[in-house]
Structures are given as structure tokens and as C-alpha cells.
Fold these 2 entries.
Entry 1:
Amino acid sequence: MPRAVTDLGQVLDDPSIDVVHICTPNQTHVEMASAAMEAGKHVVVEKPVAVDRPGASMLLDVARRTGRHAAVALTYRGYPMVRRARELVHGGHLGRLRLVHGGYLQDWLSDANGYNWRVDPAAGGVSRAFADIGTHWFDTVEYIARARVVAVMADLATLVPVRHRPVRSGAAFSGASGTTEPVSIETEDVATVLVRFEDGARGTLVVSQVSPGHKNDLTIELSGSDRSLAWAQESPEQLWVGARDESALLARSPSGAGPPVGIPSLPAGHPEGWAEALRDVLRPFYAAISAGGPPPDGADATYPTLADGARGVALIEAVVESARIGRWVDVCPIQTPSEPYGSRTFPGGPVG
Ligand SMILES: NC(=O)c1ccc[n+]([C@@H]2O[C@H](COP(=O)([O-])OP(=O)(O)OC[C@H]3O[C@@H](n4cnc5c(N)ncnc54)[C@H](O)[C@@H]3O)[C@@H](O)[C@H]2O)c1
């Protein structure tokens, strides 16, 4: 029976609840997820898992110490054709990776009436467009390519410098209505990022939340020495495979990448989309909890872990720093702190 409460403490005190999904504004993730794990709950944490390096590091520490399963909703890994692309790369079909490019374009903040907690650094963090959607692009690329980005050169721009904030409440994913007040905006509307991979491959990414007509336009193309692969989130059941002699458009098929082990999927020809992708990211997480084993450690993970989430935070940090100093910046892994979690505890009380 569905039940709603406004106090996280009531959720954490309820022994019938095994898993807590943290789907609140970014700035709240670390304290809420930590409190949930300390209370013995497994967690699903939304991206970005933290708004800074210390927060991500603390989350890793709490997860390790409490032994709880902790997944991150890196949704795009769940698409069948993304997994198919990963298999093709693993099978050597691309040859040596040379170039990765693409974009993540949206339009919901195109005009000054677009307002949401994300534009406020106090709620969303210092990066907005990159943290919100650019991190998805990087995670999906690294997941497909099985290659790490080691350095970035980024330019961030705020192209709508003043927005109209609703005086009473924020309107998610829509223009504000009613009384508003002007607010100066510091977080970026667009990010352009040059990328270097560990094996010498190069890349480029364009991120925007102010590109009219683009709704959730995530595109990825990888070129290797033998073949290229291209995937677009808005046509998710297709994967383009390019070669010098003959190119092909693959459709999801029973012989292609199936769902993660043990997960029923719709038969080919019955289009799957964003909701099914999120389902397929989370089902292995719930299966792992049901199996009763410890959380996965590293490469054996069947679901995106906090380490993957912390990787996104490291990328945000590198992109923001690169834009600040105008130079290439290395992406430095986030470690678990040697010190215990310390005095940061969830303050409790009603939630808004
Ligand atoms: N994985 C994905 O593909 C994906 C997609 C969308 C959003 N997200 C992430 O999900 C999170 C939420 O984004 P959204 O678009 O759903 O935001 P939203 O504004 O639509 O929803 C946030 C919810 O959190 C509640 N809330 C705010 N402060 C709270 C508090 N202190 N305690 C308890 N509840 C509180 C609000 O009432 C609201 O219901 C963000 O971190 C975002 O990055 C991830």
C-alpha cells in the first residue's frame, strides 16, 4: 500500500523499508544517502551523487563501512542498443579507438522564464548543464568504450544571464507562471568540452539546455581504426555501424544484446525507451540485494555503483576547473577518505 511521509526519519526508522531512492535536489544527496545507509538501508542515489569531491568521497566511505548496496541512476546504460554497442567494442569490431564525439542538447531552459532549482548553485551545485546532463554523456561513452577520459579542456557559458524566478515555488521543466523576480544566473547553460582518453583517443562534447527544438538529444559516435558506431537517445532502438566498405543500421533483435541476465525484456519490435532503460539499470541492483551477497567490488558490478557516481563528480570538478583557468585539466579519481565519516549527520526534521 503506497504511503507518503514528509520526514526522512520516518522512512529510516521503518524496518519494512529495505531500499531508499534519493531523488531530491543534488545538494541533499550526500546527507540523505549517508543517513539511509547508516540506518541500514540500501540506496539508489541520483546523479550527480554529490556536488563536490569531499561529498562523493564521504559517500564512498559510508557505503564501504556500512556494507550497503548503493546504485546510481546512470540510466543510459540500460538501453539495449547501448549494451549492444558495448559488446561490439568489447568484441574488437571498432579496432583501436580514435575519436569520440557527440552532444547532449535540451531546450527547456531556452528562455528567461525557465527556472528550476538546478539553476541555483546552492541546490544544484556550481555546475548545471554539465553536471545535469554532460555527466550522463561521459558515463555512457566510458561504459560503451571501456575507456577512461583522462583530461578535459572546457568552456562554460551562461547565455541567459537573468532568469525570472517564481516567487512562491519552482516549476520543474516548464516556464514559470504567476509572480516572478529577476535572478542573476551563474551556472552554465552550455558547455563545450575537448576530451583526451587514456589510450590516446580524442573527443569532443557539446552540452546545452538552451537549444530550441532539442528535447533530450543525447548523441554518441565512436570511431575506431576499423569501424564507427553511432547511437542517439531519441531513436534508441537503432545503432549505426559504419565501415569503409559497407555501413549498416542495426535494430534491436533477439540475437543482439539482450537484457542483463535474468531480466525479461519486451520482444524486438516493441520499442523500449527511457523508462525501460532505468528499469534495466535497477533490476540487477534489486536482484543483487535479493541474492543477499555483499555489494559488488569494481569490475564485477552488475549495476552502476557509487564509484561510477563519484567518477561523474571528478569529471564535473575537472570541467569546472578547466573552464576557470582556461587550460587542460587531468581527471583525478576520487578516493575513499582515510578519516571516518565524522560529524556530518542527517539533521532530520520535515522535508520540503
Ligand atoms: N538519472 C536520470 O536520468 C535523472 C533524470 C532526472 C533527474 N535526475 C536527478 O534526480 C534528482 C531530482 O531531479 P528532479 O528533476 O526529479 O527534481 P524535481 O524538482 O522534479 O523533484 C525533486 C523532489 O525533491 C523534493 N525535495 C526537495 N527538497 C527536498 C528535501 N530537502 N527533502 C525531501 N524532498 C525534497 C521536491 O519536493 C521534489 O518532489 C536530481 O538529482 C537530478 O539530477 C536524474
Entry 2:
Amino acid sequence: MQNKLKDLQPVVYQVLSNCFKNNKLSHAIMLSGAKTNIKLETAYYIAQSLVCETSNDFACGICDSCTKITNQSYADFKYFDGTNVSIKKDDILNLQKQFNKTGIEKSGKKIYIINAAENMTIEAGNSLLKFLEEPSSENMIAIFIVDNLDKMLTTITSRCQIINFKPNDRQSCIDEAISLNVDEFDAKMISNYVKDANGILLVSESESYQNALCMFTEFNNDLFMLERVLVSFQTNYMNNKELAKDILAQFINIFCTYLDDYLLDSVLLKDKYVNLNRYLEKNQMHLAMIYTILLETQGKIYRPFDLNLVVDQMFYELQEVIK
Ligand SMILES: [Zn+2]
């Protein structure tokens, strides 16, 4: 974990390293930044580092205390997950009750992690605030994980040491998504517009993405028969407007990703769409026009425009460019 953190989030690594060395870690830490799996891993890693039996800075990860944190069996450790259900006032009151008792583990430290802390009821937030203001012990450490700092009560954030995570770079998203069994091609494609591995997995399995990808392949195979793509889109999907919108949005994401990669001369996706490559080599001037059509359409999909008109207009305009 130490090397992973150092590679993926060098600034976070440095901040934590200094805190551990100088014993200056705050009693309330907030890990903030774009959705990345590594925030949760880091939260656990900090908890381990605080109680590790063999190391004074970063945790060893294998001693008895480290293992107990991983298994959530460390008696003075509590994990709350707000990703699917919001944290309630009772959760905080129970935590308070439990942590007011004398610590059981030998480190004396009591640690709790709240994941997706922005997903907390107002009552829970207020109880938490009281708990932060009057901790029952000097050795209590709170670790919060948030995707969106703006959604947190400022009275809470102002009491926290905030550690900012940078968004994942594309390659690390791809690697992580592949490790979740996402097909390599899909990982390369989706990582351009979804910046976390779980999100990439979800999109790759979605009906809208799969259909949009077929549409794009069909388009590449016969560039000058755009009308055929339009007709098959209308016949197959327009009876379900919500799905049609998602497919159109994915189609545009895919198209823009292809264009981004073409411009960057990236080999990620280029070898797959030979016809389009050939076309763009001959018609470089059209690239900016195509981008404009796609982005203008993208801005209309989820707004109150008539979807039929939006679709027709996009295909008509593309057809005017690609002749
Ligand atoms: Zn350890």
C-alpha cells in the first residue's frame, strides 16, 4: 500500500508521511477529492498506521492490530458506509456511547471512518459536530471520506485536516478497471470520460454503452451510410426515450473519445476504427466541425428538447460534413 499511495497520490503520501514522522496528524481528518477507490484504502491505511505494533510511520499491514483493522474486528474501531444508505443520528449516538467507554485495545486509540460522509442527515451532522467538539478522549480519531467537500457542513470541515486527492490519471483507471474484469478495450474507451474503476465497470455493463458501441462500429464500417445508422436508432430505441437518451449520450462520449485519441495520436483506440482514421487523414478540416456538432447535441440530450429533433439534427449535420 505504501508504494501504491506514493505512485498514485504522491502529495497525499508526502503529507501523511510528514504527519506520522512529526506525530502531527489531526484528530479529525477529511479525505476529499474525485471518486477514487484509493481514498477508502487510504483511510484504512491511516487507521492501521495509528495502531500498528511494529511501525512508527506507515503501517506494516500484517501485525495483529493491522489485520484486525482490515477485518473490522479491532474493538476500538468503527466503520460507517454512507455510499448507499445515509448515516443517521442514531449511528452517531451509538458510536458516541461505544467510544465513551474505556478503550479495550492496547494502543488506547479509538478510530472511526465515515465513508461518503456528505451523505449524512442534518441531525446526524449536528450530533457529529457535538462529538467532534467534545471528544470523550484525547485518543479519538475521526477519518471522513468525501467526494464533494461542498456538501459537507462547513462547521465540520473547519474542524478537520483536509487532505485532497487528485483525480485518477487515465492509465491507472484503465489498470484498475481491468483488474475488476472490465474488457481492456472498454476500459480504454470509458476511462476517457469516467474517472473511477467502479464507474467504468458499471458503464461497460450498461445496455446504453453496449448499444452505442455497436452504433459507432456500424458508423465506422460504412461512413457514408449515416442514414442507415439513424434509421436503425429510430426503429430500435426511440420507443424508449430514456434509454434512447442514454444511448445517444454514450454514442457521443464514444465518438469524442475516438476524436480525442485521434488528435493525441494515441494508440489506445486508433487501430480499431480504420475507416474513420482514413477519412480524417484526408479531411482534417472537418474534425473541429464534427466536435462542435457532437458537443452541441450533448448539451441538449437531457434538457427539454424534442429528442426526435435533436437526433435528426445531429445526423443531418454530420451527414452534411461527412460526404
Ligand atoms: Zn502493523
